[in-house]
Amino acid sequence: MAAAERLYAEHGLVAVSNRQISEAAGQGNVAAVGYHFGTRADLVRAIMRKHSAAIEEIRLRMVEETHGSEEVRDWVGCLVRPATEHLATLGVPSWYARFAVQVMTDPVLRAIVTDEALTREPLRETLYGLGGCLDALPAEVRAERGDMARQLITHTCAERERALAAGTSTRQPSWDDTGGALTDAITGLLLAPVTRRSPAKEART
């Protein structure tokens, strides 16, 4: 799993074969991946589950602390900070954030991972709490901004992880500061005014 996570993060899902993963893991049997995990999707799911378990444990603690809040920023923190807090524990170099980007750009694997994530109670409670603070937003705007927020979290974390691995400068001095910057940005995104479409634009759409 560690070898697959690193190779997928560095080279992409399509470019890495099961043989390469087995060799990188020091396995003499080139079919070891299939033997232990089955399909590539099963291997990806196992890697995501390993990290998700740790992230959701952090999120559970934050949700319990945030319970009853009506502040958007509090719930956005529950959405963002579990990931950045987990990434801070992985050391340098790490590969999970870059691996997650690869998964989220694959349409099939993205659907598998997203559907499974939505079954986890701490995340469901976070989205419910956040939704309760955004009743004034039309449903389609909330959905669109949710997509934007997911992209912002995933790619910002991957860029920081990449910079740390390369030893180059980062936008924020720590993962905690990155979590704070993301929380600020996404709170602003969710609370931004909504521009009404003109009738002519709606007709063309």
UniProtKB/TrEMBL annotation:
Keywords: DNA-binding. InterPro entries: Homeodomain-like_sf, HTH_TetR. Residues 2-47 form the HTH tetR-type domain. The keyword DNA-binding applies. SUPFAM superfamilies: Homeodomain-like (SSF46689). The keyword Amino-acid biosynthesis does not apply. Pfam families: TetR_N. This is TetR/AcrR family transcriptional regulator. It comes from Streptomyces rugosispiralis.
